[in-house]
Amino acid sequence: MIAVTATIVVSLLVGVGAERRFAGRAQGWARTVLTVTLYGLLPFVVFFNIARLHVSLDLAAALGLAIVTAAIVALVAWFVSTRVLRVARPTAGSVMVSSIQGNTGYLGLPVTFAVLGAGALGNAIAYDTIMSAVTLLLGSAAIGAALGERAGEGGRSRLRSFVTRNPPLIAVVLGLLAPDALAPQALVDVSHVLAVALAPLGFFALGAILAGEAEHGVLGLPPRMTAPIGTAVTLKVLVTPLLLLAITAPLVDLPRAFLLQAAMPGGINGLVIAHAYGLDLRTSAGAIAWGTAIVVVAATIGSLL
User: Which of 15, 236, 252, 266 makes the best surface tag, with the fewest CB within 10 Å?
Assistant: First the structure.
């Protein structure tokens, strides 16, 4: 956990420093990082992890209920954002994405190892692989296409944006169809390295975006806890694991790793979706920053105890 925390902090500080040193250019670099992630790195990582994934029937049932939980949370986020907070559609979309798409890989796996031990990693990896694909490439991308400012006008145009701006989804389909022979272990190992590399790149982008918004007086550094940000963080870190526990308790034996993974904060890939479809980047960045800070502090204390 110490290494993970240090990487997050250093990456954020490098992004903040770059934005302040180069006055606006770092935000352009950050958006380039997000674009390269969406169209280059994520499809590669997704394909080789999906192609080698094997899930038992019990795990499949628990994962199915986790997907149901995410769908309910998304609906709650939509209701609170549009009926209670009455925010604009792109902001509501950012709240929804930040409420269902978690950092279950770079942060969730080390937290699972630190709190539950190496024996729980298998379940944590299964959760990360399946839920990342469903909540990011289906749920979050669909939300972005429906509510984003850059997704076009009309149903046909937004559907086209959902497909053309979501190359990792194609990688999922190909990965499910591909035999193991097309996913040699060497390339699977490379995909794991790239998956780890996505985190510092993403937190660099987050730091640059936060610093840029702070310079324009739009978003503080650290970001101010607004109602949309607080809603997203609460739904993701607190409501999601409690709801998952309530739904699964009478039906399946929920792996403890699933509960930890469900409590992970909004993931960096939420920024990728917000950038690609035109959601509220400020709300997405703030939710990731606050959620990550809360979970990292709690996980560090938990691992020490």
Answer: 252
Sequence spans of domains, the chain: 2-304
pTM of full prediction above 0.85: no
CA-based R_g, the chain, Å: 18
Tell me, what amino acid is at 162?
F
Residue with tokens 């024996």: 119
Q: Give pLDDT, residue 244.
A: 94
Q: What is the pLDDT of residue 202?
A: 73
